[in-house]
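TICKET: design request
STATUS: open
ATTACHED STRUCTURE:
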């Protein structure tokens, strides 16, 4: 039997791993589509909702917006954040 994520990933209360796990296809599609249209870049996810430690990832949803930022614009975006 496979151990729970909290055990084998060293759970420290971070929700990012679970978020990526549940939205991997959407994030991956955005990355692939952006790469095909604009070349290298980075996918940025702006999480709209507050993620609480009590979230049930099997039931609850987390609102977020994602976009692909081309490599030429990524440095400026990261400096602005």
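STATUS: resolved
RESOLUTION: sequence designed for all positions
ATTACHED SEQUENCE:
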């Amino acid at each position: 039997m496979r151990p729970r994520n909290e055990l084998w990933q060293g759970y420290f209360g971070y929700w990012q791993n679970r978020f990526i796990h549940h939205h991997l296809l959407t994030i991956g599609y955005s990355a692939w589509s952006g790469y095909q249209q604009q070349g290298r870049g980075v996918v940025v996810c702006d999480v709209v909702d507050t993620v609480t430690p009590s979230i049930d990832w099997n039931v609850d949803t987390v609102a977020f917006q994602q976009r692909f930022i081309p490599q030429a614009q990524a440095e400026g975006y990261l400096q602005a954040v």
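CLOSING REMARK: Residues 24-38 form the longest helix (15 residues). The beta strands are 41-47, 64-70.
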